[in-house]
């Protein structure tokens, strides 16, 4: 079992990381399956103190110390802690400026960042992956997050790098967020092995649906982070391949799936690195006790959500199907064509055909070549009897790029706000190279369509 180092960058990354580790620990600690529990702790927690406290494989980075201080203060009441030697902060933030985070702090804080990563890396016998949690709208999460991605590639050269990137609300968190997002994605495309995208607006909509009616106008970032961490944890926690011996009904779990194997499966070509995650079912804690869904239904809904590029299991259009399942002569139905999927089933009575059949249909994949990896775990997730998680690399993952490029290119031609970036040495040539990289990514994802 190889370990994973998690780097939490900026306010968003640290708050999301705190929620993620809470969930990872609780799932491992509460599981009745000892093998799953042990594997989970080995993957995400490197040491255990004399008091029985687990230490997270985490590096905390923010150029303002208040978020890290708040996160550290919360650990007094729980059974897992962060390593205080792996925290890096400064006295002033990056001012929502990618260049400030990347060019300025990335240079002046590099030695401290390297030391913090080494503190965690030295405690793990074998590291397969590094997960960087970051936003894309501000300066620290986006700019410094990209610089840290380069740093971990050098400090831990054998590990594959996964970046979890939170995309901003469409109508703006900061005026220059489109610039920051272009610079972030173009940089990561050169240095990351895979990029998991999480859209704030989609998770806000999902969180609103789970709240009582009178509270739906006041969704907090804590509630959004809780949902994001659930979608992520369901993919990251240990799962295994399974097989059935011929003539026998019993399902036998086999080889544990390492996270670097997942990345290699999900990204078969360096031009396609954009991933999204889905979870089924998603229910409030008040509804959990009344949720009893079959594997067949979970597989059916999770695939339909994928085909329609939605993280919601409502307002689904069931006439949208793989071409081979259409009953009419009209075969021109548009679906979210996939490159690859990783489907994880968690819960009792591990399925084989009930879910596999849904995602093995060849004509939902590029050129009709099925690329789906399945993982299984008998341990339940979030106290649900059964749950399905889907990590996908698909056509519509890049659908937002065209609008992003157009919006930021219009600003760039008008030279709006460019002086803010030039102050830190980021010139027009850098911007043009970033636009060229993203235009190529946009074209690649447009070419995925089955026909």
Task: Set down the secondary structure blueprint.
Blueprint: E1 3-9, H1 10-30, H2 34-44, E2 45-48, E3 54-56, E4 58-62, H3 65-74, E5 80-81, E6 87-89, H4 98-108, H5 110-121, E7 127-135, H6 140-155, E8 160-167, H7 177-191, E9 194-199, H8 200-210, H9 221-236, E10 240-244, E11 251-256, H10 259-266, E12 274-280, H11 295-307, E13 338-347, H12 353-359, E14 372-377, E15 386-394, H13 401-413, H14 418-422, H15 428-446
Structural notes for this entry:
The chain has 451 residues and is an alpha/beta fold. 42% of the residues lie in helices and 20% in strands. The chain is built from 15 helices and 15 strands. The chain has helices at 10-30, 34-44, 65-74, 98-108, 110-121, 140-155, 177-191, 200-210, 221-236, 259-266, 295-307, 353-359, 401-413, 418-422, 428-446, and strands at residues 3-9, 45-48, 54-56, 58-62, 80-81, 87-89, 127-135, 160-167, 194-199, 240-244, 251-256, 274-280, 338-347, 372-377, 386-394. The strands form three sheets. It has a ten-stranded mixed β-sheet with strand order 6-4-1-7-8-9-12-15-13-14, with helices on both faces. The chain has a three-stranded mixed β-sheet with strand order 2-3-5. Helix 12 (353-359) links the parallel strand 13 and strand 14. Helix 11 (295-307) runs parallel beside helix 12 (353-359). It is globular. The two termini are 41 Å apart. The relative contact order is 0.12. The model has no long low-confidence stretch (mean pLDDT 91).
